[in-house]
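Hi,

I'm pasting everything inline rather than attaching a file, because the server keeps stripping attachments. The sequence lines come first, and each chain or strand is labelled.
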Amino acid sequence: MNETRSIWDYEDIVERGLLEDLELLAEHISGRVLHINATYSGGGVAEILSSMIPLLKGLGIETEWNVIRGDDEFFSITKTFHNVLHGRVNGAVEVPVKHEPVSVLDDLDREIGELNLRKEMFETYLHWNRINSEEMDLDSDFVFIHDPQPAALIDVKQRGKWIWRCHIDVSNPDPLVWNFLSESISKYDASIFSTPMFARPDLGIRQFLVPPSIDPLSDKNIELSQGEIGRVLDKYGICMDKPIITQVSRFDRLKDLPGVIDAYKLVKKRIDCQLILAGGVAADDPEGMGVYHEVMEKADGEEDIHVLLGSPPFSDIEINAFQRASTVIMQKSLKEGFGLVVSEGLWKGKPVIGGATGGIPLQIVNDVTGYLAHSVDGAAFKIANLLKNPELARRLGEAGKEHVRHNFLITRHLKDYILIMLSLENPSGTIRL
Amino acid sequence: MTDFTFYRARYQLELTGKKARDLPELLAAIKEIDESSIFDHVYHALLDSHFLPIGYPNDFAYWIADALHEPALAERLADLDLREFPDIESLKKRIIDIIEDYMAMHDVSRRADIGQEFHFIRCITVTFPTRYMVTNMNEVLETIKEIDLDSIFYYFIASRLLGGEHYKELSRWILKNDTHNLIEKLDNIYPYGFANMDALRNEIVRIIERYFWENI
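And the predicted assembly:
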C-alpha cells in the first residue's frame, strides 16, 4: 500500500489543534514503522490499518503494512485461538468438549488426546509464524503486531520496539492457549489493549490503553445522499416504506444473529418494521458459512427479514447505505472485541442498541447515546421504544455522534500510536520533546 | 527581548495493573498509586471537551456510585473543591481521608460485580513545542486567545499540578518582561471555578487586557 493521505482532509471534522499536534509529534518519530496482521480485508483491524497507514505516511513517517500468510489449517487454528481466548458462550465453543468420564483411565486417555491435539495446533501455528518471519523484512524501529495470529514473529526480533496490539478480550481465556501465546507476548516491549477489562495482569510488560477507531472519510462512513442510499436498497430489493432495524456484522456466533431475529419478531407483532442482517465471512474464519445457513433457517423465509451475505463482500458504500437507511441499529453481541460497528452507527446519528459486552458500553452510554440490552426481551422493548419516539431516537443519535467525534475517530487513534512510540523511546512519566 | 515558545501536552493512558472490587481495595490502591494516576482519574473530566453523561465529575465518585451503590460517599467525592489543593499529594490525602471516614461509619463489604472493577490508569504526559512563539506581551495575549483549549488546560491546570515546569517558565518570562503584578494575578486564578475551559480562557484574556489598560 503506497497511498498517502493528509490529516488536513479531516479539518472540517475534528478540532484543528489535534491536527496541528499530529504534525508536531510526527516530527519526533524517526525510522521505519511496520504493522503486521492477518488480512488486508475483512474485520475491524484491516479497516483501521487501511486508514491508518496512509495517514502515517502522510505525516512523513516511513510506514509499511504486511500480512502474514498461512494455509487453511493455520487460519482454522488461529480462529480457534480467537474463540477460546474470548471465552465462548451459548454452547458455541468448538474446543474439546467435556465428556462424562466412563472411568479414570478413559478420562486420562481423552485428556492426553486433547493435549496431543493442542500440541499439533501449537506446532502448526509456530511453523507458519517461522515461515512468515523468514519471508518478511522485520527490520524496523517500531513493529506493531496485531492480534494472536502473527504474535510469535517476536521470536526473531533483532532490534526496534515491538508492540503487541490486542484487539480482543483476553481477560478470561482458555489457560492452555493463553499460556502458550503469552510465552511470545511477554517478549514484546509493550502491549496495547482496547479497554482495561481486556487486559491481563500476568504479562509483565507495559500495557497501554488505546480504543480503536473509525475513519469518517472512508466509504463506510462518508455522507451519502438519499439517492445513493435508495439505489443501494433498491439493488437488494429493500423498500424504505417501513422502519428498518439493521445489524451489520460478520456471520459469527458471537454476534447473536438469532437473538436479533427473535427481538425483531417480538417488535414486529406490535410495530410494522423490517430487519436487515448484512455481513460477510472473514477470510480467516472457516465457521462463517455455517453460521450464515443457521441464520437463514431461523429467518424462515419471512419477507421482511433481509439476510444479506456479502459474497463478494459488500462495498463499503453499501454498508454505509444500510446503516444510514436504518431507524435503529443493533449490535447484539454476546462477546465483542470492541464492536466498532457501534461507532459507525453512532457516527451516522443513529441510536444504537448493543449487548453490554466488550467495548460496547464505552461507546453506548446507556440512555445517552443509545441503549444497552441484556436480553432478547430487553432489546425488543428498546427497539419498540425508539420506533415509537423519533425525537428520542434523534436525541440519542446526535449525542452519539459527538461522543464518537471526541473519542473514536482515526485521528485520535493516530495520536495515541505516535505517543506510544515516543513513550517507548523515553520511558518516563513526563516526556519533554 | 527573548522569544517564548508555547508548549502543548498530550496524554497517553497506560494501565497500572491495579484494580479494585470494593472500598478497602480501592483505598489501598489509592495510597500506592502515583500522582499521574490520581491526576487522570480526577482531572480528565476537565480535559474531556465532550458532554459528561452522569453527574459525577471524577472516576472515583462515578465508580463508587455505579458499581458499589454507595451514593453518599460518591457525592462527597464529587463535591471536592479542587481549588483547595495546590498539588496532587494534598488532593490524594483528602480523597483518602474521605474514604477512611466513610469506612469507619459504614458497612463497606459490598463488592462490584465481576467486570465492573475499578481499573487504575496512569497518564503519560508528552509535552512539545508548538509553532506559537511570542516576543512581547501583546503576542502572549493574542496567542492565548488563539491556542486551543487543551493548551489552556495544560498551562493553567496540568502543568501547575504536575511539577509546574512549563507554567513556571511562562511566569518567569512574563516577570522578565517587567510585568510584575500581572503574574501575581495569573497565579491567583482558580481554574476549577470555571464552568469550562472557554470560561477560563476568557478570564485569562480579561486579566491580561486589564493589565494593558492599567499599565501601558
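Chain B has two domains: 4-8+129-215, 10-122.

If the labels don't parse on your end, tell me and I'll reformat.
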